[in-house]
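Dear support,

Our group has been running a series of protein-ligand predictions, and this particular one with zinc ion is the one our PI (initials K.S.) wants archived with full inputs and outputs. We had some confusion internally about which version of the output was final, so please treat the block below as the authoritative record. The input we submitted was:
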Amino acid sequence: MQPAARAQFPQARPRRLRRTEALRRMVRETRLSVDGLIYPVFVVPGADVQVEIQSMPGVYHQSVDRLVEDAREVADLGIPALLLFGLPPSKDWEGTGAWAHDGIVQQALRAVRRAVPSLVLIADTCLCEYTSHGHCGIPGPDDRPGFIDNDRSLELLTRAAVAQAEAGADIIAPSDMLDGRVQAIRSALDARGLVDTVILSYAAKYASAFYGPFREAAESAPQFGDRRGYQMDPPNGREAVREVGYDLAEGADMVMVKPALPYLDVIHAVKTTYPDVPLAAYNVSGEYAMLKAAVAAGWLEERRSVLEALTSIARAGAEMTITYYAKDVARWLTSEAAAEAEGQVVPASSVARASQPVGTGVPNT
Ligand SMILES: [Zn+2]
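Confirmed final output from the archive:
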């Protein structure tokens, strides 16, 4: 079908539809919703522990009891899901804490499941938080430093996935980027009768510099080598679409691109190729830290810049965004909805005017 002929200037004036906030609201193409937010959390051993992570202001290491309180708040804000990471009391070569019955994430899953049954619980499934060497799989022979033995590691990952599902995880999210893990995990879950457990694969996870703060948060930096032998090479976009294809063929129910903002083209390509597959994006620790630092310096207005960043991720094609800003965003969206219902001007613009940094002399850059 031929597109209809369009008017040209001066009949055509796109600015007509931008004249008032009400008009802009009517024609807005992308709307952020609390329904698409996923809040990541870091659980640690002990009781009554809540320690702020230095490079991620407002994000904490929390013991299970404090996490339960946090989970109640998350549910009250209308956020549907938590993504759980664990820091075990001790680490070993194989990462046995990842599948121990009383492993830290398994304890947290049981406690939150009991206290807040409505929350969707997503377990990050990997070995790097639990291994003494900090890799996502088991290193191979000594003559190949940093080489991860793919097929041997799959067996350990499936143990972790089964333990997490049995502890109450609704969704298993393998983040290791080893080959064949989705198939291995699906088979292991099904063999235990866990046929309703969802798999959200980190299908396109890049070897990114933007994970720096996370490694402090998860204490998961590799002790030797790096992760470039299994995570994706940042210049590759077409390969991401291929990776997603493999994971879907192996049984992934949902897929993820990580990080988000430096990879909006990848999010868009995945959504264009697989429009019917639920797609998540991980707005990672470095993306969060950059915004927090600029806001702390007075260089950016937090609410507007965060909402704009997250809107861009949704506009690129992600239905779900994992973000450390989830609770703030839920509050902001709720207050905007309330203001609109009362017919007030959306307060973001007035906030922005009050706190706009002055003196750069370069508007709109
Ligand atoms: Zn890992």
